[in-house]
Design a protein that fits this description.
The complex is a heterodimer of chains A (about 270) and B (about 250). With about 270 residues, chain A is mainly α. Chain A contains twelve helices and no strands. Classes of the chains: A mainly alpha (about 270), B mainly alpha (about 250).
Chain lengths: ~270, ~250
């Protein structure tokens, strides 16, 4: 089969995407510098926030979800998705600086497959993360009134959001090629997290922040997760969450494909 | 050694950003997310920003101390520290220099974060005594973080220990009365925070901005005891590791 034919064969490209996604996942689980932010940090924050702010349930009008950890875990899923996305970008930047990216470019694969592989890996990672976080929260008293369908929907929303953030981080990595820049973006993850109702209901947020949340797509993601888990439309609309996550994924994947083309043009 | 460590802050562009920007983001984000907590009965202030501001100052100072440990790990990995070990200088000075630089450096995030809080309307009900307590708590906590970081750096001899250093500081600060006062904490964190020395350091620091914690000896001495104890423990660990590093 010629190089052009390989390039056009959808089956071949799908295998390429799967192989690159698998590689991305393997590197995630082999290196402590990726495991720590993707799994340990969100769980630590869940423990700290769930215990440290649990007295919030006494506030008039605070929504009831059973154990407080059941309310907060949606924020943990969002945080996990953000960090999974960022570590994908960091890994891509490391590949660029280390030369592996150049080797990929010599292979007869569609350039967009390189981006899709990275994003797909993050989506799978998002599924693993969300499942783990929900299981841990369950062990500590969270109960999910949405049942299996609600849990599945929440995991899907979180995983798609992880893919969306991976697209954004990959776009930055492709645009700049700088590993240290990507590593220094870690605090920015918390800007995205805190400008969404990650740990408190939107109505309870401070004045200016409440207005800002309207414009943050992650607001609808975290509310969608919460609504799905507790089968409570008042907490959030899961379908709006899916829409926001899919929209984010599509937009940032397009951004990273553009960044890839820009990078190849300047080489 | 002090001057060399401070040179890095001046020469490396953005060296102060991580220890300043991250705590400011946490300050604004946490204050925005959890602002209603100060409505709870028993909260010693009506301003959640005032409650969280000293925490952010401590966090910034702690990260500055942790960064000193990470820099030492880099020096060890790159061989510079081996050259220092051949010098006739007393060994403890090799740790004291970077620690002093970190403590000097900690004044920057503490001041910037305080300025941000004041600009957003947090007052200083504790006046000058409260302010002194805040700076003393922050700078001294920075020293302890630096000793912790140095111990790990000498043990691991690798820059990969950096995240572990910073996460240790993060945990120490947040597994305390970070978000709510002790009487409002519940479950395992209530017990843990009671025995976490950082809880008492935060109490000392909060005399600056929290109206319900006025400057007094009773709010200060537990923090001083905690800081002294942590300095003794981490100082001993760091000196022990320094003796072992040449073996």
């Amino acid at each position: 089969m010629s190089t052009d034919a390989l390039d056009r064969d959808a089956g071949v490209q799908a295998r390429v995407v799967a192989a690159l996604a698998a590689r991305a996942l393997r590197s995630q689980f082999r290196r402590a510098q990726f495991l720590l932010p993707s799994f340990v940090l969100p769980l630590l924050l869940l423990a700290v926030v769930a215990s440290g702010t649990s007295s919030a349930r006494r506030l008039p009008g605070f929504p009831s979800t059973g154990a407080y950890v059941g309310f907060v875990v949606a924020g943990t899923l969002l945080q996990g998705a953000l960090l999974a996305g960022l570590t994908a970008g960091i890994a891509l930047a490391a590949d660029i600086e280390g030369g592996f990216f150049d080797r990929l470019l010599t292979a007869p694969v569609q350039r967009v497959s390189i981006v899709l592989g990275r994003v797909s890996g993050s989506i799978v990672l998002g599924v693993v993360q969300a499942s783990l976080f929900l299981a841990v929260a369950f062990l500590f008293g969270a109960r999910y009134q949405g049942g299996v369908p609600g849990i599945a929907l929440a995991i899907a929303i979180a995983a798609l959001a992880a893919g969306g953030m991976a697209g954004l981080a990959s776009a930055i990595a492709l645009r700049t090629g700088s590993l240290s820049l990507l590593q220094n973006l870690f605090p920015i993850v918390f800007v995205f997290l805190f400008t969404a109702p990650a740990f408190f209901p939107r109505a309870f947020l401070g004045g200016a922040l409440r207005h800002v949340t309207v414009f943050n797509p992650l607001t609808y993601v975290v509310e969608g997760i919460r609504g799905a888990l507790h089968d409570a439309p008042a907490l959030g609309n899961p379908w709006r969450g899916i829409l926001a996550a899919v929209g984010l994924l599509a937009a940032t994947t397009a951004l990273s494909v553009l960044a890839m083309r820009g990078r190849l043009r300047t080489r | 050694m002090w001057r060399r460590s401070l040179n890095e802050v001046v020469r490396v562009r953005g060296a102060l950003l991580p220890t300043t920007v991250a705590p400011i983001i946490f300050l604004l984000g946490t204050a925005g997310q959890f602002s209603r907590l100060s409505d709870l009965h028993g909260f010693p202030t009506t301003s959640y920003l005032a409650w969280i501001l000293p925490l952010s100052c401590m966090q910034g100072a702690g990260f500055a101390g942790g960064a000193a440990g990470a820099n030492l790990a880099r020096d060890i990995e790159q061989g510079w520290f081996d050259r220092l070990l051949t010098s006739p200088a007393p060994r403890p000075l090799l740790l004291a220099g970077p620690a002093l630089a970190a403590m000097t450096r900690a004044l920057v995030p503490t001041t910037v974060i305080l300025a941000v809080g004041l600009a957003l309307g947090t007052g200083l009900p504790g006046g000058v005594p409260g302010l002194l307590a805040l700076y003393l708590a922050g700078v001294w906590f920075c020293l302890i973080a630096s000793l912790w970081g140095s111990t790990l750096a000498m043990r691991a001899r690798s820059q990969q220990v950096g995240p572990l250093i910073q996460n240790g500081v993060f945990l120490a600060v947040f597994l305390s009365t970070a978000y709510t006062p002790l009487p409002l904490l519940q479950g395992w964190l209530a017990t843990f925070a009671k025995y976490n020395p950082v809880t008492y350091v935060l109490l000392m620091a909060r005399q600056a901005t929290v109206a319900g914690i006025p400057p007094s000896w009773s709010h200060t001495w537990p923090g001083l005891v905690a800081l002294t104890g942590m300095t003794a423990v981490f100082g001993a660990l760091a000196l022990r590791q320094l003796r072992l590093i040449n073996r």
